[in-house]
Amino acid sequence: MTEADKLFSIPKIEHGIVIDHIPTGWGLKLLEIIHSYPEMTSVVATVGLNYTSKKLGKKDMIKLAVEDLPASILQHVSMIRAGVTVKRIKNYEVEKRFVVELPETLVNQARCRNPNCITSHERDVPTRFQRVDPKGERYRCAHCERIFPVGELEVWIPTP
Fold this sequence. Notes:
The chain has helices at residues 3-7, 27-35, 71-81, 118-121, and strands at 15-23, 45-53, 57-64, 85-90, 93-99, 105-107, 110-111, 128-131, 138-141, 147-149, 154-155. By secondary structure, the protein is of the alpha+beta class. The chain folds into two domains: 12-99, Aspartate carbamoyltransferase regulatory subunit, N-terminal domain (Alpha-Beta Plaits); 105-155, Aspartate carbamoyltransferase regulatory subunit, C-terminal domain (SH3 type barrels, Roll), CATH 2.30.30.20. A hairpin with a 6-residue loop joins strand 8 (128-131) and strand 9 (138-141). Helix 2 runs antiparallel to helix 3.
């Protein structure tokens, strides 16, 4: 058995998406977010937990049998764990690879934690947050103007 065989016990996929370099313990949370989208509930997914990683020490990994991920899902992934790697696989080869970063604006991706914000009382008002610092770790609510660290925002998937 080669070193590569020892590292990956999740089989390679012919076509799909691999979300890699997920810090250990976050793989199942990311899969929960992904599967909360109606179009993703029946997608075949494979999750690997606690793999050895040169970059992180330990990591989780998700493989999805889909052609691509919508931008809204990638934004949710970035809110949970910016810095993960997303790879599009075609014919068992990496076709495209990129690192997920926090976006400038979050629209209907999170709920405002301010109980006095209009979005807390009027559910049909879309939420909107604008990044306020260069590192992308804090966002301002467009309605009440309160600033929150990204980790304190409540991830929200609006129902259709």
